[in-house]
Design brief:
140 residues
Length: 140
């Protein structure tokens, strides 16, 4: 089947964007693995040092979501076939982002719960993470 030049342009762009998102997800997984190892090896009272690492991880997750919106808009320009390789790949990457977000949030909250004294700003992070977990339940 022959497609129009506009269709070919959109699919080429989506392919490039998916490659970039996949790279961002790999970067996110690497960052998350480092944070999880750091949390695992952490001693009581050491959360302050992990806070900035966690916030960097959250920024990477936000970048992935923002880029996902761009890709989703491009996918809307394609015929509504959920079985296209582009949509399948996008869905797989979306699942990886959600899985990373949930795993990271739960483990970070668990580490916070074991601390007797929490670093400044912990309450705000805790409230935001609870909201994120709630929104994942609604959209998942």
């Amino acid at each position: 089947m022959t497609h129009s030049p506009a269709y070919n342009k959109v699919t080429a762009e989506i392919g490039r964007f998916l490659d970039i998102l996949e790279y961002k997800v790999q970067d996110l997984n690497t960052s998350t693995d480092r944070l999880m190892l750091s949390l695992h090896n952490s001693k009581q009272g050491g959360m302050a040092s992990h806070f900035s690492q966690y916030m960097k991880n959250r920024d990477l997750i936000s970048e992935c979501w923002a880029f996902s919106i761009v890709i989703e808009r491009r996918l809307e320009q394609l015929p509504a076939d959920p079985e296209t390789p582009y949509r399948k790949r996008f869905t797989g990457l979306t699942v990886k982002i959600w899985a990373t977000l949930l795993d990271c949030s739960l483990k970070f909250l668990d580490a916070l719960s074991r601390e007797t004294n929490l670093p400044l700003g912990s309450r705000e992070v805790f409230v935001r993470e609870i909201k994120n977990l709630g929104s994942s339940r609604v959209s998942g």
